[in-house]
From TrEMBL:
Keyword Magnesium: no
Keyword vocabulary terms for this entry: Coiled coil, Oxidoreductase
Organism the protein comes from: Actinidia chinensis var. chinensis
Family matches, as InterPro entries: 6-PGluconate_DH-like_C_sf, NAD(P)-bd_dom_sf, PDH_N, Prephen_DH, TYRAAT1/2, TYRAAT2_C
Domain called Prephenate/arogenate dehydrogenase: residue spans: 10-271
PANTHER family cross-referenced by the UniProt entry: AROGENATE DEHYDROGENASE 1, CHLOROPLASTIC-LIKE, AROGENATE DEHYDROGENASE-RELATED
Name of the molecule in the record: Arogenate dehydrogenase
GO biological processes: tyrosine biosynthetic process
Residues forming coiled coils: 234-261
An MF annotation (GO) of this entry: prephenate dehydrogenase (NAD+) activity
Protein's UniProt keywords contain Oxidoreductase: yes
């Protein structure tokens, strides 16, 4: 999507105002959009500082006349949150956008429960408060225009990310999940495994080992709920875990085969 595309200011409601929702809202407010939010936890004081109107009551939030409602809650809580939404209080057709790290799961769930007149855009900003703290330029933003009839609202929402310099990647939810199982889930799995091994920096670190330490520390900043959600709700993740286990077994067997060859006296005598 071109950064020169026409856009308009939007009224955007955020469900799930944790660190990621807060992070996205800062840029949206900076761009001039009007932001409302609701969450299980009371973030009303923080919201005021960010220039966001906070609602403790979901009914009042749905009556706030938003153009866009963005789902920023956890993967594991999505089903419960969606089923508690008072869709009957919507005043006009609304664009629903999810920003979860898996895509087929929210797509299928939202298509089942959203009013037919509501549009659906499934997205994955592939960055967060740490990687995006110095700006979003050249960071990946995946999106799938699942059900879009109001092109103006959809384009204006996408322009939030395009105008910040994101690499806008349009693909299907299934394509995303297949690739993310190999990239994001595999990265998190290896980072978690390194944490279980309690690896730490040493006085003789190589740069490569320090990369592993950084990987461990980076993945452990994310919650286990996120990690388990990447596994439970991405149908491709289980196969990638099996592939990783098989690869480790192959490497182990190659090492044992070489060890046996080196230590076999009959082999040594024939040298």
């Amino acid at each position: 999507m071109s950064s020169s595309s026409s856009s308009r200011t939007l009224k955007i409601g955020i469900i799930g105002f944790g660190p990621f929702g807060q992070f996205l809202s800062k840029t949206m407010v900076k761009q001039g959009h009007t932001i409302t939010a609701t969450s299980r936890s009371d973030h009303s004081h923080l919201s005021t500082d960010l220039g966001v109107s906070f609602y403790r009551d979901m009914d009042e939030f749905f009556e706030a006349d938003n153009d866009v409602i963005m789902l920023c809650n956890s993967i594991l809580s999505l089903s419960q949150v969606v089923k508690s939404m008072p869709f009957h209080l919507l005043k006009h057709p609304t664009l629903f956008v999810d920003v979860l790290s898996v895509k087929e799961h929210p797509k299928q769930l939202l298509l089942e429960v959203l009013p037919q007149e509501s549009d659906l855009l499934c997205t994955h900003p592939m960055f967060g408060p740490e990687s995006g703290k110095d700006g979003w330029k050249d960071l990946n933003f995946m999106y799938d225009r699942v059900r879009i009839r109001d092109e103006a609202v959809c384009s204006s929402f996408l322009q939030i990310f395009g105008s910040e310099g994101c690499k806008m990647l349009e693909m299907t939810c299934e394509e995303h999940d297949k690739m993310a199982a190999r990239s994001q889930f595999l990265t998190h799995t290896i980072g978690r495994a390194l944490s279980e091994m309690n690896i730490e920096s040493t006085p003789i670190d190589t740069k490569t080992f320090q990369t592993l330490v950084n990987l461990k520390e980076s993945t452990m900043r994310d919650s286990f709920d996120l990690f388990s959600g990447l596994f439970i709700h991405n149908k491709f993740a289980q196969q990638e875990l099996k592939n990783l286990e098989a690869a480790l077994d192959k490497v182990k067997q190659k090492l044992l085969d070489r060890t046996n060859k080196e230590l076999d006296p009959s082999v040594s005598n024939n040298r």
